[in-house]
Amino acid sequence: MFQSAISRRSLLSSSLAAVGLSATSALAAGKKTPVGLELYSVRDVLVKDLMGTVRGVAKMGYQGVEFYSPYFEWKTDYAKEVRKLLDDVGMKCFSTHNGAKSFNGDGVSRAIELNQILGSKYIVLASAGRVNGLDGWKGIADMLNSGADKMKSAGIGAGYHNHQIEFKPLDGTRPIEVIAKNTSKDVMLQLDVGTCVEVGSDPVAWINQNAGRIRSLHLKEWSKDAGYKALFGEGEAPWKKIFQAAEKKGGVEYYLIEQEGSRFTSMETAEKCLISYRKARA
Hints:
CATH class: Alpha Beta
Shape: globular
Oligomer: single chain
Number of domains: 1
CATH superfamily: Divalent-metal-dependent TIM barrel enzymes
Number of strands: 8
Distance between the termini: 46 Å
Low-confidence stretches: 1-29
Strand content: 5-15%
Number of helices: 11
Structural class: alpha/beta
């Protein structure tokens, strides 16, 4: 009986130690998840001086960036210059935001070429545009699958970025559910947190329902008073729970801070959001 009690205590201690180790490992994994900036956040200065803006973002401590759709018009030589800059400042291009032309016809090859130069991991459809009915959303899913097949053979993933409309029920079904159900699991579901929160949807539940597919998140804030001009940590998003779900279930590979404006300049805003993010993750 004495030996049995010891065995039970030993087993309990081992179990508790394993739980503690698991929690510590999860925390460590979270701290290792890189954070970048969606450069739409600093579009006003980027359009005037892309190279200088990227250098400034690197000095803030961002580990990567996501270029938005105008990059698609770059000449190949200019894309190479941008890649050299990223290498020089020690940053990665995690992904790019794209229009539908990057998923159709010759545009797929062009998007692949530029993203390979930049070292991007994902070509993300930034917006579905105007869509008619649930059948229209299935058509968007078909386009994503078609693009994803071609991108996969080139070693690049495809992704889809939501806005508010995808979380608003249409004939009893949320369009984001149509996208998730009708696309290959190879298609990343990039979660824009702020737009999800604004329409009253639960970002944590969505992450948990799509294990392994939420490989990146836009850490956009939203509040009832300031809307999207709230800085990271000043709004309604339950960040601690979001990070836990993203790292335990979502399969997150990187985070992206995105801001649509604030009471500060765009560069000040990007820096303040990064500082707040780091405090939240400490």
